[in-house]
Amino acid sequence: MAVAEELSTKEKIIKAGAEIIVKEGLRKFTARNVANKIGLTDAALYKHFPSLDDIIIQIIERYIKKCSESVDRAVEIGGSTVDILKQVMREHISVLEETRGAVPILCFEFSRSGNKKFFDILHKFVESYKTKLSAIIRIGQKEGIIREDINPEDTAMLFVGLIQAKTFAYVMENREGKIIQDPEMLISELFYGILKR
């Protein structure tokens, strides 16, 4: 059985919505377009979600939950600070691929749109993620693994910014397939700049 066939209608709607946001933009994120993508009527779509905003909220909340859990899980698994940070990055990339890059696109869109509801949700996530990552980076600095001259909060934002940049390149180049072709290479490039030599 194909993966798409295993998804519930609600999951298909979320996936279709994310794909439209990334490939066609928010202007094309309409009930008709989402419904057509998976063979539903507009009315059937609204049986699963009361509004399009609810689809966006589901996309964002799932991304936030998975990213946040990835940090907690990496810390629980343990290992060196570098191992923990690399695992966080691997899992963040995995979540990015699952959601087809919709949340980085939404971050950009809502940072400029004046839509306070979505902006506040995304801002809270970025601040929480930054706090968790910077705490791990500080531990690495105390251990002498990570350069002392870097700002932990700014470095944590490099993780977020790198994901954003890769997503924008994917969209701007109108590519298909994976957003990040070689996650391990990307991770090694990031860590080259923050580790002590």
TrEMBL record:
Coiled coil: none annotated. One of its GO terms (molecular function) is DNA binding. It comes from the Bacteria. Keywords: DNA-binding. Residues 7-67 form the HTH tetR-type domain. Residues 30-49 bind DNA. This is Transcriptional regulator, TetR family. It comes from Venenivibrio stagnispumantis.
